[in-house]
Specification:
The complex is a heterodimer of chains A (312) and B (322). Chain A has 312 residues and is of the alpha/beta class. Helix content of chain A is 39%, strand content 17%. Chain A is built from 10 helices and 8 strands. Chain A has helices at 3-18, 24-37, 87-97, 116-129, 143-157, 181-184, 197-205, 239-249, 277-299, 304-307; strands spanning 44-51, 54-61, 69-73, 101-104, 136-141, 165-169, 226-233, 255-262. Chain A has an 8-stranded mixed sheet, with helices on both faces. In chain A, strand 7 (226-233), helix 8 (239-249) and strand 8 (255-262) form a beta-alpha-beta unit. In chain A, helix 4 packs across helix 5 (143-157). By secondary structure, chain B is α/β, with parallel strands linked by helices. Chain B contains 11 helices and 12 strands. Chain B has a 6-stranded parallel sheet with strand order 2-1-3-4-5-11, with helices on both faces. A 4-stranded parallel sheet of chain B has the order 7-6-8-9, with helices on both faces. In chain B, helix 1 (5-12) crosses helix 2 (16-23). The chains are: A alpha/beta (312), B alpha/beta (322). The A-B interface holds A 1, 180, 184, 234, 243, 246, 250, 258-264, 277, 281, 284 and B 159-160, 163, 166-167, 170, 282, 284, 286-287, 312-318, 320.
């Protein structure tokens, strides 16, 4: 572990000790501040526009090198964070990859419970990729992972092709919180407080069951989701969601998962790109996986995904 | 040439490495020996001034890399490519010497004789301190363990194996075997240390076998035969290389419900091709290569500080074998 990461996690533990009961308003304000103070990527610029009626932030690299749509569904337990809090990390990926990264805003719970966020994500994805032969990549961190997979499950059920690659970073895929790591990693995950998760899940789910497949993809049909690269963190309270996703998709038709668990790091350490070298290395690795998937697609003949059999 | 570290070493009756440790402020030298060295340094007026040395030298634009034969050949190849690319970005060229694993320092001297500006040295075995001042150019040890008194950039192999052990325990393993090179290599030694410390920290597991030998099909196949027939066979194998892991894994029927968990090391390309695919550790080769070049070029440019140790942990790639 780098000195930078050691110091950062120590700060997290300290502020958790100092904090009182969970307060959503304060947590939202804190996340906005985290996004504003995060080091912006050198070599990227940002613009705001709207897609399918949703606000999006787009990170453009100064030096474009690839032709592909990269859509990043941000995390934040369905209740916090925004395209702005994630623009720095989208910028780091844009620079590492040489491609623009689109981060949609979606409505947050509890004001807008399930499936409001999924509907918006679904609409943005459809608008950006429908009818296009370009490769496209769906990235989701934490809660964004569930939204990314939920949108791909809906597309599959409509008979539409999966992304060229789906990248899940420390995804939260089970809102019923049945993974063992929720308890076993509670003492080592500096970033995510496991005790707050049931409240976030309840705010998002409303009257929906925690095992609803579109809210908790781990409980759904995981076939025909295409290639998935999962980058998990060993100390994440949600690491079991990644391991169970890899196990469940092993040998399943139409879904190929590669799972990598980064040693000794907490939930969504990738968010701290530009601050800790582990996050920079992880984003570089994500860019490498995306490049590899684009190369595979070219070698296999562009658009082959759409010719694959699909149920539904 | 003025007073050298060898003059100080001769005057104090110690090795150059000891002089180097004293000057670096290391605590591993007996106080009276350290005092004797300091007196000789003062008497002779010796100053280990690497900036002055590098300014006196004509820059060649070459950086030397000593690379031994390794049990992770793909990783070694990737390291060469990454180091060369990172150097090329800085307008430097790479000069490579290989060794059979016993003559790294001789290979380094050969490169130094060609006028390289800096040396990156990977040692297959040997953990004795090397004298960074012996080469007159900055030296960074690459993936050769932590060595006092020298800049090192390395993969934290102990951490990599420890993560594998923790993963196997989570997957229900109770009787672990380690099959690797052990003291045959620096990497094997660190892996074994990682295995020992991780298993001793977890009460639910016992180590039922430690098999140390070369990273070859023959050794792995023999080991598999011996352990399968043992009275208390392991339920999980921690392997020092993907080659050993894939050989061991192939000794068990894919559909056998009693099939043990097998984890490789190195994430070589074939780890994704064997059936079942290997769970293995991906080594941060690119990161190590880039950090090593960055550090050694900072030294060439005159950075003076205590020796720096940068250790990067592998990550676990989860396949089907565990």
């Amino acid at each position: 572990m780098s000195r930078e990461a050691d110091a950062l996690w120590a700060d997290f533990w300290e502020s958790r000790r100092a904090a009182g009961d969970f307060d959503l308003v304060a947590a939202r304000e804190g996340s906005i501040e985290a996004g504003e103070t995060a080091p912006q990527a050198v070599g990227a610029s940002y613009r705001r526009t709207s897609v399918a009626g949703a606000q999006v932030v787009i990170a453009d690299p100064d030096v474009p090198r690839i032709d592909a749509s990269i859509i990043w569904i941000h995390g934040g337990a369905f209740t916090m964070m925004s395209a702005d809090t994630h623009r720095h990390v989208a910028g780091h990926l844009a620079v590492a990859l040489g491609g623009s990264v689109v981060v949609p805003e979606y409505p947050l719970a509890p004001e807008h419970p399930f499936p409001a966020a999924l509907d918006v994500v679904d609409g943005v994805v459809a608008e950006l990729v429908s009818g296009s032969d370009e490769p496209w990549v769906l990235v989701g961190d934490s809660a964004g992972g569930a939204l990314a997979l939920g949108s791909s499950m809906r597309r599959r059920d409509r008979g539409e092709p999966p992304p060229t690659l789906t990248v899940l970073l420390c995804p939260w895929l089970d809102l019923s919180l049945s993974g063992e790591s929720v308890a076993s990693n509670a003492g080592v995950d500096a970033v995510l407080d496991a005790e707050t998760l049931p409240a976030h899940a309840a705010m998002y789910l409303g009257a929906t069951a925690g095992t609803d497949p579109l809210a908790s993809p781990l409980h759904g049909d995981l076939s025909y989701l295409g290639s998935v690269y999962v980058q998990a963190a060993e100390h994440d309270v949600l690491v079991d969601d990644s391991v169970r996703f890899a196990r469940r998709t092993d040998g399943i038709e139409g879904t190929m998962t590669r799972l990598e668990i980064v040693s000794g790091l907490p939930h969504c350490f990738q968010f701290f790109a530009g601050m800790i070298p582990e996050a920079d290395a992880a984003i570089t690795r994500v860019a490498g996986e995306i490049r590899r998937s684009l190369l595979n697609r070219e070698e296999n003949g562009a658009g082959r995904n759409s010719a694959e059999p699909s149920p539904g | 040439m003025g007073i050298t570290i060898y003059d100080v070493a001769t005057g104090a009756g110690v090795s150059p490495a000891t002089v180097s440790r004293v000057l670096a402020g290391g605590a591993s030298v007996a106080p009276d020996t350290a005092e004797r060295v300091r007196q000789v340094v003062e008497r002779l007026g010796y100053r280990p001034d690497r900036v002055a040395q590098s300014l006196r030298r004509q820059r060649s634009g070459l950086v030397g890399l000593v690379l031994p034969e390794r049990s992770h050949p793909h990783a070694a190849f990737e390291a060469v490519i990454r180091i060369e690319r990172t150097l090329a970005e800085r307008d430097r060229s790479l000069l490579v010497a290989t060794s059979d694993g016993t003559r790294e320092l001789a290979a380094a001297e050969r490169l130094a004789a060609h006028g390289v500006d800096a040396l990156l040295i990977t040692r297959r075995t040997g953990r004795d301190p090397i004298d960074p001042d012996a080469f007159e150019v900055p030296v960074v040890l690459v993936d050769s363990g932590a060595v006092d008194g020298v800049d090192t950039v390395r993969v934290d192999h102990a951490a990599g194996i420890a993560q594998i052990v923790r993963f196997l325990v989570r997957e229900g393993a109770q009787r672990l075997a380690f099959v690797g090179e052990g003291s045959l290599s620096n990497v094997g030694t660190e892996q074994l240390e990682g295995f020992a410390s991780a298993t001793s920290a977890i009460s639910e597991v016992e180590t039922v076998a430690l098999r140390l030998g070369p990273s070859t099909h023959e050794f792995a196949a023999t080991t598999a035969r011996e352990l399968i027939g043992s009275p208390s066979p392991p339920d999980a194998y921690v392997c020092g290389s993907d080659l050993v892991a894939s050989t061991l894994s192939a000794a068990f029927d894919v559909d056998d419900p009693e099939r043990p968990l097998v984890v490789g090391y190195g994430a070589e390309p074939h780890s994704e091709l064997v059936v079942p695919t290997l769970t293995t550790a991906r080594l941060p080769i690119a990161e190590v290569a880039e950090e090593a070049v960055r550090l050694v070029m900072q030294r060439v440019d005159g950075l003076e500080s205590d020796p720096i140790d940068i250790a990067l942990a592998p990550s676990l790639v989860v396949g089907q074998s565990a």
